[in-house]
Design goal:
The chain is of the alpha/beta class and 234 residues long. It is built from 6 helices and 11 strands. Bound molecules: 5-O-phosphono-beta-D-ribofuranosylamine (GRF). The site of 5-O-phosphono-beta-D-ribofuranosylamine (GRF) has 15 residues, from helix 1, strand 5 and helix 6.
Length: 234
């Protein structure tokens, strides 16, 4: 039996993706526990929500540290001390530094509101998609790798059509619905040990073939055995 996955959530603002993960845990769709919610803004609504819920939270404001690296080192230490196994960035608004990558290599995921690699490296991907005139956009859950902003191996994507009368707000809201669906799903796949990284590809194994253990939930691949392709839009 695989132990419950200990999650570290990194948030900066409203925290709706964190909420979707917490709800998925509550309804039994995600077998995980929140080990720590890390936030970098004291006035973030998501932080207040997490506190009200009684979740373990830790605030790391940039101004309290001499450098970004020192702030990241403190966040990494905090998550390690809380026993975090997987770091899920959920609307964290700053690039993380080596201090976090070193402790959690291969164990950091993020959600981005576009079909990567389109509209990467921006905090306004929905507006950029609308402005560019794409007919389809969406969202992506991916591993976070050092030095490649929004460029790590892709776990799940969901497509969202751009409608004729869309504003940034209506488009972002429809994308967000999909984010709330695929992020808990991706974390559950990780928890089940069903993700295997082969270069740029993340191969998702069938449920009954999963071999994950608490210690190493992601395999880095050689060969293949009874695997299916990563699905688009679970
Ligand atoms: C989401 O659109 C997510 O894709 C992006 O930042 C936003 C965070 O929203 N990375 P929330 O704080 O989870 O509501």
């Amino acid at each position: 039996m695989v132990a419950e996955l200990r999650l570290g959530l990194m948030i900066s603002g409203r925290g709706s993706n964190m909420m979707s993960i917490v709800r998925a845990i509550e309804v039994g769709e995600l077998r995980a526990g929140i080990a720590l919610v890390v936030c970098n803004h004291g006035d973030a609504p998501g932080l207040a929500w997490a506190r009200e819920r009684g979740l373990p939270v830790a605030l790391f404001e940039r101004r309290d540290y001499p450098s970004r690296e020192a702030q990241n080192a403190a966040m990494a230490r905090g998550m390690a001390e809380a026993g975090v196994e997987l770091v899920a960035m959920a609307g964290f608004d700053r690039l993380i530094t080596r201090e976090i990558f070193q402790r959690f290599e291969g164990r950091i995921v993020n959600i981005h509101p576009s079909l990567l690699p389109a509209f990467c490296g921006t905090l306004h991907a929905q507006a950029d998609a609308l402005k560019y005139g794409v007919k389809i956009t969406g969202c992506t859950v991916h591993f976070v790798t050092e030095g490649a902003v929004d460029g790590g191996p892709i776990i799940i994507q969901a497509a969202v059509p751009v409608l004729k009368d869309d504003s940034v707000e209506t488009l972002a809201a429809r994308i967000l619905e999909q984010e709330h669906r695929i992020y808990p799903r991706a974390v559950q796949l990780y928890a089940e040990g069903r993700l295997r990284v082969e270069g740029r590809r993340v191969v998702i194994s069938e449920a009954e073939k999963a071999v994950g253990t608490g210690a190493d939930r992601v395999s880095r691949g050689e060969g293949r055995s009874g695997l299916q392709s990563p699905a688009t839009g679970f």
